Amino acid sequence: MFKSKSKSKDVKLDPNTTDTIIGTGSIFEGKIKSDAGIRVEGQITGDIDCEGDVTVGENGQVHSNIIARNIIIAGTVTGNVQARSKLSITSKGKLYGNIKSTTLSIEEGSIFEGNSQMENITQSEAVKLEVAAAIAEPVAPVKGNAKQVEEEVTYKTW
To answer: Which InterPro entries match (predicted)?
Structure first.
């Protein structure tokens, strides 16, 4: 009836997928730790620690600190957030807390009350992020002569 916990520890989830959804009408209290992404459409009270992305939908109400790779806020978050990569607050999003992120996007119409701290990433980390992005996206066929390709590659690295 119940599965062994030892088997579940061997499974490593893909951080690019969403495996946990707190649906509208659901209320969760406690700490969430996930290797994959989390989407919140209901209510959460408790800390969120996520290797993947955290998305707070328009109906989402979060009263917690959030640590994740990327964070998208379209609902309401009360607590401090730390995005290892990008934090986005949409036009309907509300954040009442402090921010720590490498990239920040705040759309017109959103609410942000708190302090923000931008973290610098080292060149080696930037190269790792570029390589990871290149692996994740299909490569377009090369068009043009060698000089055009070299100029395009140079442009994209800056």
So the answer is: BacA/B
